[in-house]
Amino acid sequence: MQGPGKDGAGSAEQSTQSTQYDGIGEKYLEIKVLPAVQPEMHSILSVLGEGGVEGMKCLDLACGTGKYTHLLSTLGASAVTGYDISPTMISSAQALYPLSTHSALHFSILDCSLPSFLPLSEKGSYDLVFSAWFLNYAGTERELTNMFTFIEAAMVEGGRFVGLTTDAHDADMSLPKCNFYGLDIEVLEPQYVAPDTREVLGIKAKVKVGKGGFEFDCYQFRAGVYERCARRAGLELRWQDCVVPDDERKVTGYWDEWLRRPTFAMLEARRVGEW
C-alpha cells in the first residue's frame, strides 16, 4: 500500500506499515485496561523521567487513538503531533481529543514506515520522538531500519527517541502465552524467516484481546536485530527496564510471571555520539 507524502499524495515507494487497525478503531481502547498492558504507563513515565518532556515539541508515531499523545501533553510538552496510517484511528483520536479543547494536540494520517514520507518542514524539528507499538510491525531488517531512519530524521540535534515494542529479550518467545493477564498470544511462526535475507529474526505472533474482541498480527524480533537496525539509521539504542504498578498486587507476587515474560520492552535511542 502506498503512503501519503508531504501533501497527502501517493508515493512510488512501497509502504510497510500495517493497516489492520482500520477495522479496530476505538475498540483498541479495550486492550489498554487489561492487566497485561497496565505496566505500559508506569514504564513510559519511568523512561521519560520527571520533567522529561517539559516545554518540548514531541512526535508520537503510530499514535492510534491518541492516549500517549495526550499523555505527553499532560506532562508539559508544548506541542504534540500524532501520526497514524489508519484513518479510523486518527478519526477516533480527533473525536477523543478535539482541537477545541486540546489545542496542543495535532493528529494526521501519515505512514511513518519510510523516511521519505516525513514532511520536509518537520525534519529535525522534534525534541522527543515517541512510539508505542510501531516498530513491531516491521517484517524485515530493511523495514525496521527505515522506521529508525524516519525517527532519526525527525529529531532535533540532541533529541531522543523513547519507544515501546514487543519483548526482544524473551528467551521463550517461540512459546505461546495463553490467558496471559487478559491476553492470548498465539505464535504463528516460531522461527520467523525474513523474506529478503532468509535469516531468522524472531517470531511472528497473533495477539487476541478477549473473547469476541479483536486480534492483530505483529513481529517479535530479537534485541540484536533492533540494535543493528538502529545503528544503520545512525542511532545508538539502549534498553530500559519495565515497571509494574506499585500496588498491593506487587507484594503478592501477582506480577511475577509477567516480569518473567513481559508483554513489551522499553527502549531509548539517541544519535550515535550523543549519549
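the 2nd protein, sequnce then structure:
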Amino acid sequence: MTGAGSDEERVTAGWRERGTVARLAFGQMGTQLLAAAVRLEIFDRIGAGERTADGLAGDLGTEPRATRRLLRALAGMQLLAETAPGTFTTTAAGDLLRSGTPGSMLSMARMFTDPAMLRGWDLLEESVRTGRTSFDSVFGTDFFGHLKAHPELSAEFNAAMSQATRLLADALPARYDFGRFGTVVDVGGGDGTLLSAVLRAHPGTRGIVHDTAEGLAQAAARFAREGLTERTALETGDFFASAPAGGDLYMLKSVIHDWNDEQCTTILRHIRKVVPDSGTLLIIEPVLPATVSPEAPDLTYLSDLNMLVNVGGRERTAEDFTRLCAGAGFRVGTITPMPPPNVFQLIEAKPA
C-alpha cells in the first residue's frame, strides 16, 4: 500500500507540474482574450444584469457563434457566469472590468493588454541576450516618449497607474506618520491619487505633485473633486533636471523601478539638493528578497522583466536601495513591508 500510495502521489504531483507549464504556455491566449473583451466593452454591455450572446452580437456587429465562444471562454476564466445556455452575467471579478464600479481595474486591463505594453515582450529573448530595452527598437522611441506622442494612450496610462495605486492609497495613511510633516512632495506623483489619500487623512499637511505635463494632466481635476485644491500645488518639471523645493518629506512611489541606477542616482541627488537636513525621503517600491522564495509574489518578478523590455528599469533588493541612496547622499533607516495584499515596502531614508 505504501508503494502504491507513493506512486499515486508522484502522479498527482506530476499533473500539478504539467498544469503549471500548461498555464504558462497558454498564458498569452488569456491576455488576448482579456484584451478583446475590454475593447469590445463586454463587461459594460452586460452591466449589472444578464445578456444573451445573440443580443450582444447584435449590439457589437459581431458573428453570433464566435461571440458566444468568446463569452464562454470568459466564463471559463471566471470573469462571466453562464446562467443558462447562451446567457451570461458578470462575476465579482468581471465587475472589476466595468467602468465606474468601485475598485475598477478597466484602465489597468486596457493598458497592460495594449500593443504598447505587449510588443516589447515579443523580444524578451533579445533583451535577455543584450540587456537592452526592446520597446525602443520596436517603436523607435522610449516608452514615455511614446506616451507623450499619443495623448489618449498617455491618459489611459495615467488612469491605469491610478487604479494600480488605489489599494496602497487606502492603506498607506494609517501605516506611516505623515502628520509630522508640513509639506509632502510626491515626485513623479501623476494624477495625485496617493497624495490625495495622504492629505485627506492629515488635514494639517500640504502637498506638491511634481511630474511632467503629461503626468499631471488629470491631477488638477482630481484635487478639485477631493476638495484639496487649496492645499496642493502642481509643479511641472523633469525629475532628471531638478526637484521642487519646499517639502520636508519627499515621496517616490513606483518611480525608481522605471530607471537604471545612473538615472535613479540623478533623481535622488536632485531631491538631496532641496530636502532640508532634517527632512525625509520615502521610497515606495516592492523589495526583492536576496533569493526567490516559493511564496514570493510572481507578479513582482514579471514586473521586473516588464521594466527590462519596456522602460529600462528593474525591481531591486534592500541592498540595491541602500546602495542607491548612499550614492545620492541618503542613509536608509528602515524598510517596512505593507500588509498583504500590498506588495510595496516603505524605504525611509534621511540625508547623510
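The chain has a mean pLDDT of 94. DSSP finds 17 helices and twelve strands in the chain.
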